[in-house]
Design goal:
The structure is a homodimer. The first copy, chain A, is mostly helical. In chain A, about 70% of the residues lie in helices and about 0% in strands. The termini of chain A are far apart. Residues about 1-10 of chain A have low confidence and may be disordered. The interface between A and B is large, with 48 and 47 residues. The structure holds a DNA duplex.
DNA sequence: CTGCAAACAGGATGACCGTCCTGTTTCGTA
DNA sequence: TACGAAACAGGACGGTCATCCTGTTTGCAG
């Protein structure tokens, strides 16, 4: 019931704000219900935007989807994963903290709707190569950030034959798969288990000794 | 151009065969293009089935989707994962063989369309609780089979504090996530990396020592 | 042979959805 | 103030899709 402050009858052009409301609503919808299951009609209602405004900013649904991926999904990965890991004392600490934060957030609300990046990756990667490229770029940035952190961990006490990229790939893959299992079971149990396994593995591998 | 042997003009009722053609076509379509992106019109064409026949066997699209999950997806997991792992000498051997088989199969054809179970899990788990239950059951069976094999591995030389279910969860999650990354990058590289990491981890954990 | 339910044919239907089109308003610029 | 481009309003349109409906055929029971 919250009317936007377009009080009397006067219109105010606000292209940036309107675009942001639109992308925000689309991000929520695409992340939870999926891209194809989200109708533009609902997005227009949620963002309080008319068809003409939508068409003006995003000529096609694909353009909106691309904006969601590049603006919001990339930002979400940056905020929930990359930055916390980078700021943590060690990679293992960072990963444990990220998992814990995500788990408690999921427990706060009722259900598990899954990782936005993973959801859109499986739905759109094969459908359109622009989507695929945008999604792959985020995965690459994510994996690279973890690999860099692992490299930093071992700056002081190097371990020979350590493949940073491979271990980072394992982390990203395990998280993605754990979230998929969590979504399928509507339970955070797979996330808790994989968090413990992963941190144990990383601590072992980054410890002294070959 | 391959006409089915309905040679002159005579019809032959074949409820089981028709149902099988339908579920087969739906399995392929749902696994590659996804559930919502697959139109019943295309399935009818692929399976050479009319609308009346389809409605007779599956009153709704959901019923067809449920049959695909319970009949074909469950069977696929059984054939490509559970049986090979069960027949292998060790869990690590089995997992390595399964990954290798899947990778070479993906390299044979051109693209990566992803794990059917994972694809449908992310698309349908939150949409309908019947779908969710059917998918969760397959994940549970999959994970349990791997845990059982791990238990069998350590029958002779037990390792204390070994959590079979947790390690099995890690395996399933890592595979699912690796396949998601493979789909996003349209490359088998994540699968190769995770296969190596996983077998290394399992061999370490199942080896002698605390 | 006969009746009857299951199996199938083929199209109608109504809802939905993305896109586009025409008109109106805002706002920077000159 | 005049003007033009951008921003926005609101609905029409065409296509698609899942479902349903009416009729016909098959095949088994009796």
């Amino acid at each position: 019931m919250s009317e936007r402050p377009t009080s009397p009858n006067r219109r105010m052009n606000d292209p940036q704000g309107l675009r942001q409301r639109l992308v925000d609503a689309a991000y929520v919808a695409f992340s939870t219900r999926g891209y194809h299951s989200s109708a533009l009609h609902d997005l227009k209602r949620d963002a309080d935007v008319t068809g003409g405004a939508l068409a003006h900013h995003f000529p096609t649904k694909k353009a909106l989807g691309l904006a969601v991926i590049q603006d919001r999904v990339a930002e979400a990965v940056e905020l929930t994963w990359i930055t916390p890991v980078k700021l943590a004392a060690t990679t293992a600490d960072g990963i444990q903290a990220v998992f814990a934060a995500i788990i408690s957030e999921l427990e706060r609300k009722g259900g598990v709707s899954g990782c936005p990046l993973n959801n859109l990756a499986l739905e759109l990667s094969r459908e359109d190569e622009d989507f695929q490229a945008a999604i792959e770029a985020i995965f690459t940035r994510w994996r690279t950030a973890i690999a860099d952190k692992l490299r930093a961990d071992l700056r002081a006490a190097p371990v020979r034959d350590f493949d940073f990229e491979a271990l980072a790939t394992l982390v990203v893959a395990t998280y993605s798969g754990a979230m998929a299992m969590a979504k399928a079971s509507q339970s955070v149990a797979p996330l808790k288990i994989c968090a413990e396994q992963l941190t144990s593995i990383i601590q072992n591998k980054t410890a002294l000794g070959h």
